[in-house]
Write the structure tokens for this entry.
Amino acid sequence: MKVPDVVAARHAAILDAARRTGSVSVDELAEQLAVTPQTIRKDLNILARQSMLTRTHGGAVVISGTDNLAYPERRAVAAPTKAAIGAAAAALVPNGASLFINIGTTTEAIARSLVDHRDLMVITNNLNVVDILGGRPGIEVIAAGGRVRASVRAVVGALAIDFIRGFRVDMALIGASALDPDGTFLNFDVDEVRVSQTIIRHARRVLLAIDATKVGRAAPVRVGDMADVDYLVTDADDAALVTACADAGTEMIRPA
């Protein structure tokens, strides 16, 4: 069953607060989100059943940094910012380019901003990107083959990696689940990471698009660091991250 947008947004806000502080209380969340304590208790129970939080008396605590949010919650987090990041990233893509686009809600925002480009070849393991760009005039979309992770509509596994190795594209447009201030970017799923690393190795230039809510977030699997990235498009304003980009020669671009 599809989670209503308003509920998904509230769940995302609860999870963001829990990640920032380590724990949340029913009364504080009810006041912050302008809903009843009963609504918050129901939300916390749902999130606990989804193994995103552990319920405590009067609230909940974070479980760990080993699991990502469910996809509807991810899409709701910082949605306007992701749209702005998507537009800024798409502005760096010239007509006539060949592209990789990996999975993620931010890369989907980039795809939405590419719909008026012309003469693009887009290779992707993101089935949502196929839906967004497939059939658009002047855009050829090639979907990677392999095992489908239905929960995120991603194609992963050895077949997808072998498929991607057959290309050498102008630019890879990638996202990540977490970004350390030292420039290391991370994800939650080993199979997704292996596909992303293959994408990076088979692109002439790499653009990483990531919003500020992911800076300092915990995720267990390393994808790469700023030495692998030509452009970082982000709304984050972190001094250590600015230094990491400067040291690696990565151009840091903030959305309008």
Q: What stands out?
A: The first strand starts at residue 23 and ends at 25. The mean pLDDT is 90. The chain has two domains: 5-67, 78-253.
